[in-house]
Amino acid sequence: MLLITDEQISAVASVKDCIEVMELAFRDLANGDAVDTPRGRIFSGPAVKPGIYSIGHQCAILPRFNIAALRVTSHRVREHREPRDNHFVLLFDLESGRLLAMMHGFTISGIRVGATTAIAAKYLAARTNLEGIAAVSDIRRAKVYSPNPAHRELFCREMGEKLGIEIVPENEPQEVVQRSQVVLCASNASQPIFNGEWIEEGALVISLRNSDRHRSPREVDDATIRRSSHFVVCSKAQVQIDQQKEWLDPFAKGLVSFEQLFELTDLVSGRDPSRHSAKEIAFYHSNSASGIQFAAAGYKCLQRVKEAGDVRDLPDEWFVTDLSAWWEKGLQPSP
To answer: Which of 2, 89, 144, 273 is most buried, most CB within 10 Å of its CB?
Structure first.
């Protein structure tokens, strides 16, 4: 069993590495050749006033790569958070059932968001999370706004060097949104961060912020929904499971209906209708993490780390219970 750290993953794996396997995984999911479960989260304390602790999980089976994946998150919430990430992705072998790898989940999570964003952009705009966008299109210039000047300067410098493109910091969000073909929102905001009337005709808008029953942040406003004609989410089921107000509120106002939402699986399988006009605005909402994302990204990151040769191999018997004594008695206890 391999123990793989964030440092190992970030040293050898990238968003671009994972786009192809991610698209194959979503296509398998669309065709019924892979299995996925919605995101699950539970909180300590009563539902009306959740406590300071949360545990979450997603899982998937991806036969194409002979793996199953389980992602587990464990953290304290809001002001009780600490600068540590207790977050793992476990990969299992389908043929033997054994645990293949235990991987830190922080970097993998960022990679899987970038890869799924790139897939959405490939089909919705033929362009697009900035690394994902640059991986599937000929992006030469990006504009960045953050209310924190130091943060936007640092982002522009680091990502400009990494991607080899011009990245310009802007002082106002309007300067970023106007005259942009792709508008990517990746914030921790609780309220909309720009005016939807600023969006150019034909643009693709991407929001990475999502909610659950205990918190209801929203990056885009009603104008963005009203002006959009094409809506894609990671999971329609998650909208109902988490009672995501960023969708339920527009439903209630008649701005969009549940039936108008498509999923990434629809995009990769060709079930999503194309735009009727180049002026139509498309909106992609990364409304949930899903097990299939961690199965695909985990598989590719594991490959890259093994190729680099820097792995920590732990004894398999540490992670297995020997039931031989039971079997010798003719008993086969189940988990």
So the answer is: 89
